[in-house]
Automatic annotation (TrEMBL):
<dbReference type="Pfam" id="PF08665">
    <property type="entry name" value="PglZ"/>
</dbReference>
<protein>
    <submittedName>
        <fullName>PglZ domain-containing protein</fullName>
    </submittedName>
</protein>
Length: 846
């Protein structure tokens, strides 16, 4: 026989195996040669029905001879059996009646088979011919079963076989064309075997592009390449194409366009680096990067590199026009493309654009709320600290500035960045002025809110059992919210706002967090310096505060954050012994803000929150169950203040002066400031305090971008995070197998890519939570900033990856002082290490 016969028998045999009865409609009588000549009869059965072999299956064959009722009667004996013997009911020249068929019961009980000759033949012919050849063979309307058989016989005799298929290792049409376009390595064989004509015919048939027979294979490649790339670009364009592509013919039909897109997508996926070179070449030849195409009309496929850059520029333009929602939509919809996915630097540019648009949108939302501001400070604090409150502006501004600080290149959306920064600064000023006004009117009290001096008795002491009390210098409220996100999954996790003691500087705020402050707290002058007083004990620095704490809690253990992170679990357990209170101090945020340059500070601050979360889990692993985290004060960290934002010192008897507060006696009250006496703040002191009410700063030492001391929400509202982590084993989570791939040998840029493969099992299909960080020594110095192929929650740093899938991550190094780092994959619930790289040498360029 022949392959077409075998293919039909295989299809019928499969159907008989499933249902036993096949009702075979052949309205055009295309398969009569197969039924009449090729199915071998091997006797008869019920009522003289012939029996034939379908493959090796003995099968009854009933044929329609003019009467459907007679046909049904002829097969009833077989059909009525409990287990009918295999039966084919063949109906040549009959179209199936889908509404009232006489054979309805047979059709429902068995399988209706309504094949199309040419469609079935295509599946068989493709094993020996290219689609171009097949299209030519099947084009005449008169082609029948015997013609198909003849084509197959000719191919066996080497009269009509595809030389191209032999050269390209049996590749199908679009795959074959893509391979030829990407690689000229087979050109000599095509010439040697005289397969050029067949190749050109295939291109014409499948893609609709005619190539002259006297064109060389190399020349044809250039023409076809230009044709397919321009055709894909043009088919996706929503406006008049640029004049430079006018000489490239358009595909004749939608089918041709679909095949062209298939070819180009195969080039992108299978020959990535070659596609980049080819697309860049065509873009340059046609000057497409110089064309004045409105980016709004670019489609969803970025055929050429210039499209992605034009869209980013358009998104920036929208941000500059304050059309933040539109800009955010473009950043969300178009930040994924061939050109972006393969380049971490492009991903970073789009992420910066997205963050700008998101911050701008949040600024607009908050500005609208402030158009009818609350009438008292309690309502201001509640609006600021609500679940979706005004603090979101601070959070997004920090994320944006941190991201920009870590980028290897300047943001291309520079104008948009400048605008959003100005808008943010104006909003901060409006918030600061408004809150200072209502706070002053309320006699400097925020009644009904937790005060910083009450955190120890109202929160720490009520936790019960051993408590780890984290005092994080300068952690503003939004940072506490992010910390809480990183601790999700713990027990009794809460975050609430507290009102810091004034002025919002470290000697005051850290003392206000100590035991006894709720009953007796004051700010005084001591030996010419500012100091805090509790129960008659004066404290101007850390040593005095620790000494006082020891008198209140004799078994307290004091641990700086860095020392805790570097200690081994056994040493940590020994250090804590049976201490009822473990105080963990972090000064990194304040130290970075006040002592290093702005860009370095922004980048490095990001790691502090992660390190606090790691320290909490580390303490939990050695037996601490209860945790409270708070801060001495918040901070402002925005645009660097120029001379017009600097205010003269009040003068008089100055005890202390910071950028955002003056402490002393007498002197003036400069414009843009407010004076409050110590008595008005509830202190037993004769000191006065002068605070800038907007964003102004005093002319004194200290940073001009990062500062604190005054009464803005960002400085005054501190987070109080409390949680429990019940004792549990520290075994590696079962079933999680993680592989790190694509890790570079060394880091020469703060931004780089890695791949994470999550290997699952047959019984778990839900996404798995991971946290991917950079660690130097024992400290976190970076984290994942972008993800493709996984869902990255920026607030918690948790990456969710489907089992047996791979996520591409953009990692961001936040510290410049590391000599080496490791990429570490952690279980977010336990900090168990699931995978880690070798040490990577850090060698950043200048």
């Amino acid at each position: 026989m022949h392959p077409f016969h075998d293919y039909l028998c295989m299809q019928l045999d499969d159907a008989l195996k499933k249902r036993g009865v096949v009702v075979f409609y052949d309205p055009r009588r295309e398969f009569e040669p197969f039924i009449d000549r090729e199915l071998k009869q091997v006797g008869t059965g019920y009522e003289g029905l012939p029996r034939v072999l379908v493959k090796d299956r003995l099968t009854f064959l009933a044929r329609h001879e003019g009467s459907l009722f007679a046909l049904r009667a002829a097969v009833e004996l077989i059909a009525d059996l409990d287990r009918p013997e295999p039966l084919i009911v063949y109906l040549p020249g009959v179209t199936r009646d889908r509404q009232a068929s006489v054979l309805m019961e047979l059709e429902k009980g068995g399988i209706c088979y309504e094949p199309n000759l040419k469609r079935l033949a295509l599946n068989v012919l493709r094993k020996r011919f290219t689609d171009g050849q097949i299209d030519e063979m099947l084009r005449p309307a008169s082609i029948g079963y015997d013609d198909i058989v003849s084509f197959l016989h000719q191919s066996e005799e080497d009269k009509l076989g595809s030389v191209l298929r032999t050269i390209f290792e049996d590749a199908q049409s679009e795959a074959l064309i893509a391979c030829w376009l990407a690689d000229d390595g087979k050109d000599s064989i095509i010439l040697e075997k005289d397969a050029g004509v067949e190749l050109f015919k295939l291109v014409e048939t499948r893609l609709g592009f005619s190539v002259s027979e006297n064109t060389t294979v190399a020349e044809a490649r250039g023409k076809v390449l230009r044709y397919v790339l321009v055709s894909e670009f043009r088919s996706d364009l929503e406006c008049t194409p640029p004049a430079s592509v006018g000489m490239v013919p358009e595909p004749p039909s939608k089918d041709h366009i679909a095949r062209i897109r298939d070819v180009v997508e195969r080039l992108r996926c299978g020959y990535t680096e070659r596609y980049v070179a080819l697309a860049n070449m065509v873009e340059s030849e046609l000057n497409l990067d110089m064309s004045e195409i409105d980016a709004r009309h670019l489609g969803n496929i970025d055929t050429f590199r210039f499209e992605e850059r034009a869209l980013l520029a358009y998104a920036s333009e929208l941000i500059c026009r304050r059309e933040y929602a539109k800009g955010l939509n473009i950043a969300a919809d178009r930040s994924r493309s061939f050109w972006v996915d393969r380049d971490v630097a492009r991903q970073a540019q789009w992420e910066a654009c997205r963050l700008m648009a998101k911050l701008g949108s949040e600024i607009e939302k908050t500005r609208l709320a402030l158009s009818n501001p609350p009438g008292n400070p309690v309502s201001w604090v509640r609006a600021y600290s609500a679940e979706d409150g005004w603090f979101r502006v601070d959070e997004l501004q920090r994320r944006l500035e941190t991201w920009v600080a870590k980028m290897g290149e300047e943001p291309e959306t520079e104008k948009g960045l400048a605008l959003v920064r100005r808008e943010h600064e104006e909003l901060l000023k409006k918030m600061a002025d408004g809150f200072a006004k209502v706070l002053c009117e309320a006699a400097w009290t925020v009644s009904g809110m937790l005060h910083q001096t009450h955190i120890y008795p109202n929160v720490v002491q009520t936790m019960g059992g051993r408590v780890a009390y984290f005092l994080v210098d300068a952690m503003r409220f939004e940072m506490g919210v992010e910390l809480a996100h990183q601790l999700e999954g713990t027990t009794d996790l809460t975050i609430r706002p507290a009102i810091a003691a004034l002025p919002t500087i470290t000697p005051v705020g850290m003392a206000a967090l100590l035991p006894g402050a709720s009953a007796s707290f004051s700010v005084v002058e001591h030996k010419g310096k500012i100091a805090s007083s509790i129960e008659g004990t004066t404290m101007s620095g850390l040593s005095e505060r620790l000494k006082f704490l020891k008198t209140k809690v004799p078994d307290v253990v004091d641990l700086p954050l860095g020392r805790l992170l570097s200690a081994s679990p056994s040493k940590l357990s020994k250090t804590m012994e049976d201490a009822s209170l473990v105080v963990v101090r972090s000064q990194e945020i304040d130290a970075l803000g006040e002592n290093v340059d702005e860009l370095t500070a922004r980048a490095a601050m990001e790691g502090v929150i992660g390190n606090v979360a790691r320290a909490i889990r580390k303490l939990a692993s050695v037996g601490i169950e209860n945790f409270v985290i708070s801060a001495d004060h918040g901070h402002q960290f925005s645009i660097r203040k120029d001379d017009d934002m600097k205010t003269d010192s009040p003068g008089g008897n100055t005890v202390d002066i910071h950028r955002r507060c003056w402490i002393g006696r007498g002197g003036a009250t400069p414009a843009g400031t407010v004076r409050v006496t110590g008595a008005e703040l509830g202190y037993d002191t004769n000191l006065d305090f002068v605070f800038p009410t907007g964003l102004g700063v005093f002319k004194t030492g200290g940073g001009l971008s990062f500062h604190h001391g005054s009464v803005s929400l960002q400085e005054l509202v501190v987070p109080v995070v409390s949680l429990r982590i019940p004792l549990q084993g520290s075994e590696l989570p079962a079933g999680k197998i993680v592989e790190l791939r694509g890790v570079p040998d060394q880091l020469t840029n703060r931004t780089f890519g890695v791949r994470v493969l999550m290997v699952g099992d047959l019984f778990h299909a839900e996404p798995v939570a991971l946290r991917v960080v950079l660690v130097s020594g024992n400290e976190q110095v970076g984290q994942a900033g972008m993800a493709m192929g996984g869902d990255l929650d920026h607030a918690s740093g948790v990456l969710r990856v489907n089992p047996n899938s791979e996520a591409n991550l953009g990692m961001m190094l936040t510290r410049d002082d590391c000599t080496s780092v490791r990429v570490v994959v952690l279980d977010p619930a336990t900090d168990a290490v699931l995978a880690q790289s070798d040490e990577l040498r850090v060698k950043l360029g200048i």
